[in-house]
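Internal tracking record. Fields below are filled automatically when a chain is submitted to the structure queue. Please do not edit lines marked as system-generated. If the sequence contains nonstandard residues, flag them in the REMARKS field before resubmitting.
Queue: standard
Priority: normal
Entity type: single polypeptide chain
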Amino acid sequence: MAEGPAVSVVVPTHQRRPLLARLVRALEQQTDAPPFEVVIVDDASTDGTSDELDRLRAASAVPVIAVRLEENRGPATARNAGWRRAKAPIIAFTDDDCAPQPGWLAALARALDDADVVQGRTVPDPEQLAHRNVFSHTVLNEDEWGFYETCNMGYRRRVLEELGGFDERFRYPFGEDTDLAWRAKAAGARVAFEREALVHHDVRRQSYFESLRDLRRREGVVRAIKRNPEMRSLCHYGIFWRPAHPSAFWAGVGLATAAIGHRTRWPLLAGGALCLPYVRYRTHTYPTGLARNRPVTVPMQLASDLVEMAVLAAASVRYRTVVL
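SYSTEM-GENERATED OUTPUT FOLLOWS
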């Protein structure tokens, strides 16, 4: 009797048919990997993803299993459906906008010999970096920094079964992967980071307004911290989620001060002074974009940071724990 796979690679997908062939090619090119299967969960796509998965399943050199969800429920539900359908004792997660490099699965599986949860290294796709803009989305993760993004994670199946998998009650797809890893740590799971398990993540260009719309998902951070108080160690000063947020907070106070007292000199000066730490952060501490564009991009980034903090503040009320 043939043995089953040693590893199951689980990938959720929604409305991204053009990316799937590249993903499967990358998995076909894995070197020294143990026997594995690929479980791709179509989260109720309407762009022909189902037909594409049928084609890939017939043509691929590795076993591809397609799971179809009839209602779009988000990546947490799709990943749970995927690992529950999978046959292997080790579950490797990646995403449809990623290209696992040839030694990825072998390195992840080796690391799981001595650990229960393993995070791999994720970098922006080098071929796409030239086309990025200030508001592009990608993932850069070169050490275990506490967020455990499922674009590059490995779990023992036993851990997923004991924890019930991803929490499907997160309102938007953000933070449910971080929540799962921290729950695993609290339950005593051995967690490791493996640099050799490398994934290239797409660099997705987006407009400023697209980036603003995406910020509503950040409320998941607050829910995750509510469930896992130890995550507060990731916050700056125990309250602020991003390193830019403390200075953004004071810049917001400065703008309000200047607006209220705009007819007199001292409120304007005080408001301007309160904005200076943020300007320094965005131009020297963590400069982004071209220097010549910063007179425009720095105010835009400040507006983004303030919107994100407002989302976190609203979620702080919802979940009764303060994160800004």
